[in-house]
Here is the input.
Amino acid sequence: MTAAKTILEVEGLHKSFGDNTILKGVSLTLKEGEIKVLIGPSGGGKSTLLQCINCLVTPESGTISLHGNTVNLENKKELYQLRQRVGMIFQEFNLFDHLTALENVTIALRKVKNFSKVSAEKRARLELEQVGLGDKTDLYPAQLSGGQKQRVAIARTLAMDPEVLLLDEPTSALDPELVGEVIAVIKALAAKGMTMIMATHQISLISGLAQNVLFMENGVIAEQGSPKELLGAGKQTRTQGFCDRLSDLGEGGS
Amino acid sequence: MELSQFYQDLLPALNKGVIMSIALIIPSALGGVCIGIAAGSLRTYGPKFIRKLCDGYAAVFRGTPLVIQLFVLYYGLPNLGIYFSPYGAAVTGFMLCSGAYQSEYVRGALLSIKRGQYWGAQALGFSSFQTVFWIIIPQAMRRALHGCGNEIIYLIKYSSLAYIVTCMELTGEGNTIATEYFRFTEVFMMVGLYYLVLVSCAMLILKKVEQWLHVPGFGHQES
Amino acid sequence: MYASFAVIIDSFPYLIQGAFITAGIVVCAMLFGLVLGVCIAIGIIYGPRPLRYLLNLYLWIFRGVPVLVLLFLFYFGLLTYLGLNLSAFASVAIVLGLTTAAYQANIFKGAILSLPRGQFLAASSLGMSDIQAIKSILLPQALRMSIPAWSNEYSIILKDSALAFVIGAPEIMARTQFIASRTYQHLPLYITAGIIYFVLTWLGVRLLLQLEKSVRIPGYSDHGTNP
Here is the structure.
């Protein structure tokens, strides 16, 4: 693992909305196959950080580098390139409501990557089968449960062959009984060595998957380290305190 | 069966009138939809000044009676030396008025598309144009369809006002015969029937189009 | 230019009197339409099958035939045919009332059907008769929900009322046309009339908004604004 090369490097990101500064200089590096988990109170900047990395929100300052090449955020071509190589999973799924599950997966393949219809569909079916939805390809988002929607969203992103996956609280909008199916898919991805940054409140994902935990508060990374360092017995870290509160509230379970 | 003189006169007149009505409705509907799409998009995404301007246009044409708009075009503008033919005045008035209402539905449809839909597309590497063309338009179209379609049905009914600016369509032809024979009840029942057929056909077509474009979770759920 | 202003200033009081007549037509039509619309809606939802067909036929006719044609049919046709003598004002109010009833019926139908079924069941379980349940449980809720749609209907009826001039009811439009034909100041006069209609639309919509606020029940969302 020490030999793994750096894929993504983020340096000194700043972002504010009006007077409200959300990110105050956040830096991180992500190595191939690494899984980092972002935790921390809501409003701490986790979502904004992920959105900045994918340039859905343009940061005021700071750089984003993929394989050592700094992305010029002014250049639209480079932006689209970056987004194709960095996949994003949203809390609210953001499936295209007018397209079936299959079309949700094929549309980007066909329009962005110029796949033919046949090869796009072949690939899409494969991805949907991988997330256990091989039989739901012709249903529309309105006909799917939350967990199924999120799995389609994951299939849609994976079909683009991203090198890094950003997950923004992928299970927060789900009913408790549907969380498990999405976690299973994410765990399977981790087992295949997908590089990921994930914001989550799900304790099982934090302790089970993370190689590195970043505790974000007030726009900065307040603490970071392996789960053992931050969450081991008797550690008096803020991360520990935060996770204890999560478990007390019963939000973490499953 | 031999029709009486009255009906021998009435039916051809109404048939002639209905052709004129259709000749009024089709360009007005097409023009109205085009204006509605343009004004609706500008009211949603345009720069502030243009947005205000288009808001003003919609407010004026939605806030005043269509008769007044037609009168301004046909009787008012000659004061400024601008002359319209009856047909020209009617079609222009219908287009502008219908466009104002259509813009409201288009705007509503565009506003109803959640931010997440843009983000979902952007995150997959869609360009802005691709996002608009493949994601926004197909969704907005479905959301606006019912309202815009109903607006065209309204337009069919309001096309009767063309008669007021002396454009001889269905109502006007009917009125001529009615005055001639002094048989208003039969004539206007017949005219009403013609309109019912037109409106019902339009409703049927709208319903077919809605079914054809139907996607679960979209559109409206009234019977 | 000066002549235009003079005409407008001279005729303004005359036009404003017309505005009161317009307002009278609209208020009468709306109230008539409200009562008839509620009856039709209840008839369509709870009535026996033949009545339902009949009422749907009514809706089909009055939503499909232009107001102008209905006005001609009623005023020049039916009234003469039946030998009745009715003022232009009353005729317009009746025709517009019949038209808006068809639309208002649909609004109420939607509102009543959108109420949770539990409301009716709960009322019945307390021993209320069907009529009592409709009157004291369903209608108060459905009417509140209908106010936003009502404001839309108001602005439509107001604008349609301008057609009253074809049968000579002395409202804004008829008066404007009368003065315009004498002074040839068509453009300024019709624009003035347009402004009066615009203000009336705005006033009515404000008034209904106020009504909506004053009868609002805390926590009751009829716009679906709650997330």
About this structure: DSSP finds nine helices and ten strands in chain A. The beta strands of chain A are 6-17, 20-31, 35-39, 61-66, 69-70, 86-89, 164-168, 195-199, 212-217, 220-225.
